[in-house]
């Protein structure tokens, strides 16, 4: 038996997915600045006894310089794989509107990128379907929680 698909809050889903795509764009466009080890030691006043802990600043920096870019690449690869699963129109919308280096606007996409051009309402439907599919896929990859995006009744909203 197939589980029913959850009903998600369209606006909240859009905001969440747009934030994730903005993070993707930042990772792709902003270069990672590697940390460097300091070569001079500074005096650190200690008012307590020995902690018997050993720190290795160089190892911590080296680990950071390897792990952070790898995590950024992995995040971008996951987003790319999710976008590749969408229909061609949905892929075109997401790539042109959210994944390119330079920002573009919705009206530019539905008037000039889509061939033939579509209406604003059709564009919103395509985007909503794409974001819904992306939310399901990203939840499957454990990058977001569907429970946070599910629609709540109007009574539950008023209590918040």
Provide a descriptive summary of the structure in words:
The two termini are 35 Å apart. The protein is mostly helical. Residues 154-160 have low confidence and may be disordered. The chain has one domain (10-28, 58-150). It has seven helices and no strands. The chain has helices spanning 10-29, 57-84, 88-99, 106-113, 120-140, 146-149, 154-159. Helix 1 crosses helix 2 and helix 3 crosses helix 5.
State the total count of DSSP E strands. 0
- Please state the CA-atom Rg, rounded to the nearest Å: 22 Å
Helix content: 55-70%
What are the segments in which pLDDT stays under 50 over at least 5 consecutive residues?
A: 154-160
Estimated share of beta-strand residues: under 5%
Counting structural domains, the number is 1
Question: Count of helices?
Answer: 7
SSE sequence, one letter per element = HHHHHHH
What is the terminal-to-terminal distance? 35 Å
Derived structural class: mainly alpha
Average predicted confidence as pLDDT? 85
Global outline: elongated
Give the biggest beta sheet.
Answer: none
Protein name: Transcriptional regulator
InterPro entries: ArpU-like
Key traits:
62% helix, 160 residues, mainly alpha, 7 helices, disordered C terminus
Architecture blueprint of SSEs:
Layout: H1 10-29, H2 57-84, H3 88-99, H4 106-113, H5 120-140, H6 146-149, H7 154-159
């Amino acid at each position: 038996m197939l589980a029913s698909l959850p009903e998600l809050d369209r606006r909240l889903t859009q905001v969440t997915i747009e934030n994730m795509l903005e993070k993707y764009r930042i990772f792709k466009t902003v270069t990672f600045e590697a940390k460097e080890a300091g070569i001079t030691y500074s005096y650190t006043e200690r008012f307590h006894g020995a902690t018997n802990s050993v720190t290795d600043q160089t190892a911590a920096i080296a680990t950071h310089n390897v792990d952070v870019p790898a995590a950024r690449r992995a995040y971008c690869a996951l987003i790319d794989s999710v976008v590749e699963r969408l229909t061609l129109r949905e892929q075109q919308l997401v790539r042109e509107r959210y994944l390119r280096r330079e920002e573009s606007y919705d009206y530019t996409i539905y008037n000039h990128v889509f061939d033939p051009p579509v209406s604003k309402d059709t564009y919103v439907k395509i985007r909503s379907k794409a974001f819904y599919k992306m939310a399901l896929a990203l939840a499957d990859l454990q990058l977001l929680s569907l429970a946070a995006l599910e629609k709540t009744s109007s009574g539950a909203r008023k209590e918040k």
